[in-house]
Task: structure prediction
Amino acid sequence: MCYCCGCGIPDNDKGDKRHITDKTFIEAAKAAKIPLAQVKKNTLDLLSEMEENGQLAEDNF
Result:
């Protein structure tokens, strides 16, 4: 869950499957048929770009 709360435990969803965990990235890699490392790199790149463009602060949920 550390991708959401910063706890540092990337494989613990703390009982709520909505949290982003390593399993989230593993399933995305399988779906895209690309390596896990590439999924994480693509995610990091997109989030960095969004941050630079001021898009991370948007609450659209």
